Amino acid sequence: MNRFIFSAKLFITIGLMSIIGCTTEKEKSVTLENQSASFQLFEVLSPETTGLTFNNLINESPAVNGVLYEYLYNGGGVAAGDFNNDGWQDLFFTSNLNQDEIYLNKGSFQFQRVTAQAKLRGNKGFSTGVTTVDINNDGLLDIYVCKSGNYDDTELLKNELFINLGINSDGVPTFEERASDYGLDISDHSTQAAFFDYDRDGDLDMFLLNHGIDPAETEPNIDRLLLQKSKHSNNKLFKNNAGHFTDVSAASGIINNSIGYGLGIAVGDLNNDHWPDMVVGMDYSEKDHLYINQKNGTFKEVIRQATNHISNFSMGNDIGDINNDGRFDFISVDMVSNNNYDLKTNMSGMNPQRFFDLVDRGLHHQYMFNTLQLNNGTMLDDGTVPAFSDVAQITGLAKTNWSWAPLFFDMNNDGLQDLFVSNGVLRSFRNNDFVIYKRKRVQQLYADMNRLANRDSLIEQYYKDLLAVMPEKKEVNLFYTNNGSLSFSEIKNDSLAPTATNGAIYVDLDNDGDVDLVGNNINDPALIYRNNSNENSTNHFLKVKLRGPKGNANGIGAKVWVATKGLRQVKELYISRGFQSAVPHELHFGLGIHQLVDQLKITWPDGRSQILNEVEADQKIIVNYEDSSETRDESEEIEPLFATSNLRGVGFEHQENSYDDFKKEILLPHKYSQNGPALAVADVNGDQLDDFFVGGANNQAAALYLQKEDGSFIQVSKKVWASDAIHEDVAATFFDADQDGDLDLYVASGGNELPEGDTYYEHRMYINNGKGQFEKAVKALPNIQVSASCVVPADIDGDGDLDLFVGGKTVPGRYPFAPDSYLLINQSTKENVIFKNATETNAPILKGLGMVSSAQWGDIDQDGDLDLVVVGEWMPLTILENVDGQLTNSTKKASLDRQTGWWYGLKMHDFDSDGDLDFIAGNLGKNYKYQASPEEPFEVYAKDFDENGSLDIVLSYYEKGKLYPLRGRQCSSDQMPFIKKKFPSYNEFGAADLSMVYGKEALENALHKQAETFASVYVENLGDFKFKIHELDPLVQLSSVNSILVDDFNKDGNADALLAGNLYQAEVETTRNDASYGTVLLGNGKGKFTAMMPAESGLFVKGDVKQASILRSSSGEKRFLFAKNDAPIQAVDLN
Hints:
With about 1150 residues, this protein is mainly beta. It contains 20 helices and 74 strands.
């Protein structure tokens, strides 16, 4: 065994993390749900059964261990390929510290190790990833092995290329190492290589994924290292020049800095232009890279443009079409635990300062969760860059433990891409109690070295002690079936043992048409999972083997479409997938119940294509490039409903003031100081053209824009708004307060910066002189100084003028206590505008009603007067019935009292054409870290638990019937120091449920609220105060819905809805809600809706939308305005 040669300096850091304070439904196929409880989709076959005895053995010692070299635990890879051309997929495994091995597949899950006979004993060194390629196009698969390790001798870092020389008389392929002949004997710290034709010149080029080896040195020096080029840790692109590979990284636009820790590479056509793009996963602080092929030999890196956030510690990744919409999605896996105990004991809290420092450095919003990026189409950069939405939370794939290889493939042949995730780490150097022990042990070591002479033996004992304490963290590998509609279900199998599985692949080892799995384990025999679905279902399959052109014998990069009745799939042939591993050179399609493929279409990398019709299922079909022809573009351009347009003359951009809500309320779930801007639309100067008002942030003046006849806008009344710039404008409405025929303006203030009752929260009334010029009416309003969310006019008392409901949003500094909302009765004359606070007399129910977000007046019960529907956070869908001029809470009467959520948006309309008012209510969404159900609600308690005079917030969630605190030991004890004393170790805190931490009596005496649903819904009015809840399409659930517009967008006579939102203000341990680009729901007039993806609707509203309104243009057409926090106004027109 070759021994690591570590650098001479003493490596005794505390550990990095101490620094870091439109879907296709499943068809009626035979799936797991149809089987008996005893049936297991995957069955582990023992080494004794298969003869596959490979074990990536790592014997740690004071000289070789994961404390000195963290990437020791990254393990090895595995590749499948038919190396001897006998029709069976063979296996090659890399070993980090021992011999790489090759096993021939003899059929019936029998394997023979032939490493020696194959002459595959390569150079010594630390092998990592492996891929396969027919590099010399002789019909024989070759093997490329990557090397890394903390070696002084660069010879040990050289990657190896094993050329397949042919098959001997025993049926064994023989190999010879010839990397230098091809220019591929590269001495970097390499993770994996991917061969593909990036320039479409007919031969295969190579991307090399590299990584650094000293994260403890990298993290404190990011600013310097970001600007410093690296020789051995930067990723590289090599062009194939007649069989010799040349580094073209700089010229092609590949990023080169010294903070790169590349662990994932996936290649695929992400923007559907038939050119290969790349997703590169980066560990630690460097952002992931998304390279869009520019078709001229260069790439453009667009990860910040194409995604709204990414994983923090990205490991492996994969590309696949999870919803069969013809656009490729991708997943990156991280290391976040999927259970409370591990979250509390192994996951250190995210440091907000570090998080935003990375954002400010251009390294993106990085969260310690898996990200599953759903492709919404090429909505960016003139249709060349795809826009992605992270859907990991709604699919249940955000937390899969310490993960390495994600693999998309069809496990059960039903036509949908399922997911496998390899899991586990040999030792958890991130365990919080271990980090504390290590810190103390370092201090002891230094003290001992200062007084004792035996330095070497002290250091040796130090590492022995660490290895004795650092816990093992093997995990069970995870299997998820795709249910369609952005839903995955975990396949439970209690018989699976925990392992530290790194590299993994899918491969049909027994040629039965279902796909098996192979995993490379540290300190355990390699895993073979036999897939039993073919023996237990009537689903069908098709395999596609490609015979490519000269220079690309196996057709790498070809795109294949398979169409059956009601099902259309697309896949591309790229071999390097998951983590450090390579799948076979063939494509597998599950067909469900279909026995015939209606159409099979292949597009080759050079653009040529061919179509095969009526292909029988349950076979491997071989497709030859020589049968292809020039491709004719027969795609039909369909004009979308919407298109983004310019607001000529509008230069306003909302600029949010800098304020950290979490300094006062550490455990707040999200900020309340960033709920603006306000937006109001009306014709304020009587010229029959709609104008608009947009609010400013603290110390930013609002703006009023008048529309001109040519459709452009001019800003007016600047001085009026500048005088009130101190306020945060969160809501506004135009209405005729004084009945003089023009529209006046009410502006509500909000925020969280100053104490409750401060004049900062003063609301304002501005009177219109009829020409669109406004003057502040200082005495028009009663003393209302509530941090508000909405203001809604209506004639409540039937006297012919408009009264107001004002919704209170938050009590600053006292989350989640409910502020007062108000009913203001209009007592104005044409000479004097006066509103009276009638809350106490007419609507006492509004006092402490809730954390109101939105409200709307309407005659819900059709009794001739106006009722009020109110929604808010920790509130039910609240109906305040107008009974003889008094507002009465009839929520329970309507059986809506259990519909508690974090509601943000509301819109009433008769959606089912039955004559009464229904409504759509926008909620937090189901794509968030927090989940809620009637059986397991999301909860909050608030009390001065530590009796120090300040209010403490305790958010909590259920796991297996037990209620646990949401936040970890560190941040909880920052707010309540008694927790560290009560629970001296993270282990003790992790094992404690909510009552054990805070005490049953204290919780009973605390303010307590629950949310039972986070789904946005359509509420059907059945009459007689009866309502039916309909959960809206999963596309709506991808984020918060803050604003809802209703109109007939497609001109079919039925009401449609446009929903917009997002929530960017989450604390940094929670992924912000940013997946929505606006959703169009086409109504059928009967209360049913069809959701449209952005690529189909054309609606693309990127950002934190707080308000939206319809504005009629000078031409009479409707335009749609979106006011976003900390961003410009956006306009969208109907085509």
